[in-house]
Amino acid sequence: MRIDILTLFPNMFTGVFNESILKKAQEKKAVSLNVINFRDFADNKHKTVDDYPYGGGAGMVLKPQPIFDAVAYVTKHSEHPRIILLCPQGERYTQKKAEELAKEDHLVLICGHYEGYDERIREYLVTDEISIGDYVLTGGELGAMVIVDSVVRLLPGVLGNEASPVHDSFSSGLLEHPHYTRPADFRGMKVPEVLLSGNHRLIEEWREKQSLKRTFLRRPDLLENYPLTEKQKRWIEEWKKEER
Length: 244
Description:
Layout: E1 2-7, H1 14-17, H2 20-27, E2 32-37, E3 50-51, E4 61-62, H3 64-74, E5 82-92, H4 95-101, E6 106-111, E7 116-117, H5 119-124, E8 128-131, H6 141-152, E9 185-186, E10 189-190, H7 200-218, H8 230-243
Parallel strand pairs: 1-2, 1-6, 4-7, 5-6, 5-8
Antiparallel strand pairs: 3-4, 9-10
């Protein structure tokens, strides 16, 4: 996969892209991460990329020309790139969207600043608009980092254990079950006996039940469209009785 990030602040990505899983993914050639300053594509001598909004109002607006030309440059050899605009008006980002994007060959992430983008960027250039949450940041860079991290970890060979992303919270539709490690007794706080039993069938059932219970208690909205089994429905009814 190739991911190009268009930004006015390329140095923000240096530490993030050169540590941990993202660094290893690049070393394994699973992904190519490229950060481009779209100010370099401005066609005026002062390299300005923003201007006052037509009709008046507060703030400055990003001009279309530098971004259109930067996108043309990074996609000139791509057949079907996904061009993603980071903006508060976009589709709220989810694990399902990360899994969808992880199947692509080329992503282009556009990070905005100032008051917003010229609307023609939104209308005629991008394929997706994404928001990472219902809040406003000073720019799209942090959102781009979130998307890159969540997508790259899903690429084949990136994580040491191929089963890891399958069992992550949200990947299965439920929150993840609790985890424990040594020691079995830490200052009187003990690991559940079932996890020490060696009975894999009971362990898997415990994990399934704990995952469902955690979702039921913390994120019941996730269960609205979840295909519950009869066994899982019985568990939920038991928990509802306990709450009464």
